[in-house]
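Hi V.,

You were right to ask for the full record rather than a summary. Here it is.
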Amino acid sequence: MLEILFQDDDLVAVNKPANLAVHRSAFVGPDDAFLVDLLREQVDGRLHLAHRLDRATSGVLLVARSQAMAAQIGEQFMGRSVRKRYLAVCRGWPEPAEGCIDYALPGSRDTGPRREAQTDYRRLATVEVGIPLGRYATQRYALAAAEPRTGRFRQIRKHFAHIHHPLVGDSQHGRGDHNRLFKVHFASHRLLLHAARLVFAHPRDGRPMRIDAGLDATWQRLLQGFGWTQAYDAWRDD
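Predicted structure:
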């Protein structure tokens, strides 16, 4: 069962699990499960995706109950009036601790034209673990918040890789050795990127909406193990 975060006659918001494809596309196999199909088993009526999340990413996903509502939400995303807050774990400790990654990105095809892309980030907490890897006896990781101003394909993942702090669990843009370290030592088998909050105007009457998505067991275990719970709580309540 999908966790439904909000539901009315116009919108449904769910907490998308990691590694669940949202819909059929060229990036997923024909036999995979799809979030839209699972949601149809829980919610009656027509459903229209209002935005997208990568298969590997978890968190708030917004679905409209009509094409008109989906179009209105889409206009808000295109107009950059939707606030999107993500939580991530990256390799290393980003410096400066807060800033904007401004780096143009292509679409789903890396050979396509590049378009402007900006992601605001903030380092929330750090940890150094005594696990040797390569030439280093210890490894550094950071809990980071990210707010993309634009909505390019895999923007946050590509931007953190661009500043040499790839996200843990990112098989396309990250570091395989660090991904394996988290699998072996911390039982983390997912991309550590979570769409924690969406803030937007309700398409029916314009009232302000804020939808938050809680963390799964992997995230909660890592926060506790790394001593990051207090930093996460402070960010969540901000």
